[in-house]
């Protein structure tokens, strides 16, 4: 079985934007790999003029939120760095039983890599100043943040279109529907910094395990 690897467009985000951005991306991916009947739930982002769809599965929401919180904790410890987080779908197979154990292993069939360049801008001083240079500097910073937010919204839309495009074009590698409850195929979310060599080794290991996967970006 082939394993598809999708590298999504890198996004420039501020720390406070991470949760909404990742929720939007992960739920969109899971929705396009949903099992059978789901209860679609439309979500309007608070920071951007974008609406996405969730599967309406409480367990999926819990799992995604838990990993996003862990990711944000990591970012806070390593500010102003590029980070990568991966959502992987897999199927569970029983390996040949030994005398002492019946081993189970995961066979990954799809990886979605989300790349973020995270910046942390301190909150603007709420105190008023009558000095024209200070006022101008504040206005300039506000305009810069507005431009950054607009650019991120445009880039996030591109990522959503990437997900829809990849999801619709690449389906031959998807395994048969497993006999499980819930809206989604089994998935996991892996967190690491893109500069972390150990993460690169883990990615290479997965590629070797799944046989020469196709990579799309």
Give an overview of the whole structure.
InterPro entries: ATG101. This is Autophagy-related protein 101 isoform X2. Residues 123-149 are annotated as: Disordered. This protein is α/β, with parallel strands linked by helices and 217 residues long. It has a single domain (4-94, 103-119, 140-198), classed as 2-Layer Sandwich (Cell Cycle, Spindle Assembly Checkpoint Protein, Chain A), CATH 3.30.900. It has 4 helices and 8 strands. It has helices at 18-31, 58-77, 132-169, 197-209, and strands at 4-7, 11-14, 41-44, 51-54, 82-94, 104-119, 187-193, 214-216. Strands 1, 2, 5, 6, 7 and 8 form a 6-stranded mixed beta sheet that branches. Strands 3-4 form a two-stranded antiparallel sheet. β3 (41-44) and β4 (51-54) form a beta hairpin. α1 (18-31) runs antiparallel to α2 (58-77) and α1 (18-31) packs parallel to α3. The longest helix is centred in the last third of the chain and has 38 residues, at 132-169. The radius of gyration is 20 Å and the shape is globular. Residues 123-129, 194-201 and 207-213 have low confidence and may be disordered.
**CATH fold category name:** Cell Cycle, Spindle Assembly Checkpoint Protein, Chain A
Count of folded domains: 1
Strand content: 25-35%
Number of helices: 4
Uncertain ranges: 123-129, 194-201, 207-213
Give the SSE order as H and E letters.
Answer: EEHEEHEEHEHE
* Gyration radius, in Å: 20 Å
* Overall pLDDT confidence: 81
SS content category: alpha/beta
Tell me what the CATH architecture is. Answer: 2-Layer Sandwich
Q: Helical residue percent?
A: 25-40%
Kindly, what is the distance between the CA atoms of the first and last residues, rounded to a whole number of angstroms? 20 Å
Which CATH top level class fits?
A: Alpha Beta
Assign an overall shape.
globular
Query: Oligomerization state of this entry?
Result: single chain
Largest sheet: 6 strands, mixed
The CATH superfamily bears the name HORMA domain
Region (Disordered): 123-149
GO biological process, one term: autophagy
Organism: Nicotiana tabacum (Common tobacco)
Pfam families: ATG101 (PF07855)
